[in-house]
Specification:
globular; 23% helix; 1 helix
C-alpha cells in the first residue's frame, strides 16, 4: 500500500491489555510488523494523549523509542 495509517497505538490498546502470554504478544507484534512493512510511501502512527476515561496514555511499548514524538 502506498500509505498506511495506524491509529490508537497507545499503551494497553496495542498490545491488548488482555494479552498475557508470550504467544499472544508475539502475534500482536507480528501483525503490527506486517502493517508497518506494507507502507511504500508513508506511514502515519497516532495515539490519543488522553483516553475516553480521562486517563493519561503513553505510546504502545511496540512503538515507544522507535518514533519521533
Amino acid at each position: 500500500f502506498d500509505h498506511v495509517f495506524l491509529y490508537q497505538m497507545a499503551h494497553d490498546i496495542i498490545p491488548d491489555f488482555r494479552s498475557k502470554n508470550k504467544s499472544a504478544l508475539n502475534e500482536e507484534r507480528r501483525v503490527l510488523y506486517v502493517a508497518i512493512t506494507r507502507a511504500r510511501k508513508s506511514l502515519t502512527i497516532s495515539a490519543a494523549k488522553i483516553s475516553n476515561f480521562n486517563r493519561q496514555q503513553g505510546w504502545s511499548e511496540f512503538v515507544e523509542g522507535v518514533i519521533d514524538t
